[in-house]
Amino acid sequence: MKIIIIDDEKEICLMLGKILAKLGHRVHCAHDCANAKILLKREQATLYFLDLNLPDGSGFDLISFIDHPANIYFMSAWDGESERKQVEALNVNGFIHKPFTKKDITLIIDQLPNE
């Protein structure tokens, strides 16, 4: 499965990318909205992990660049009521609070239909 991760923390991309690669998935990453928009125009994926807080915008700004239907999870250490309501309003798959664990990620992967 192809997975796209958008997160300004390169360590998060590396850690999450390693977890997903060990599970047999192909991973693409971007670290800001500008590069994410280029990546999202070029690549389609089965699963997207989007950070809420990016240096030049928000993961919310990237939704329109993703072809639907798609499996989308927002990630953030900041998960206040306002952010959770925005996530719910977008009708995406869910929200992951940072820091997350390998188990959190494998549960998401296990819920997806097999390709």
Automatic annotation (TrEMBL):
One matching Pfam family is Response_reg
Q: Which PROSITE patterns match?
A: RESPONSE_REGULATORY
Modified residues annotated as 4-aspartylphosphate in this record: 51
UniProt keywords, alphabetically: Phosphoprotein, Plasmid
Q: Which Gene3D superfamilies match?
A: 3.40.50.2300
Q: Which PANTHER family match?
A: RESPONSE REGULATORY DOMAIN-CONTAINING PROTEIN (PTHR44591:SF3), STRESS RESPONSE REGULATOR PROTEIN 1 (PTHR44591)
Which residue intervals define the domain Response regulatory in the entry? Answer: 2-113
What protein name applies here? Answer: Response regulatory domain-containing protein
Transmembrane regions listed in the UniProt entry:
none
Using the record, list the residue span of the signal peptide; answer none if the entry has no such feature. Answer: none
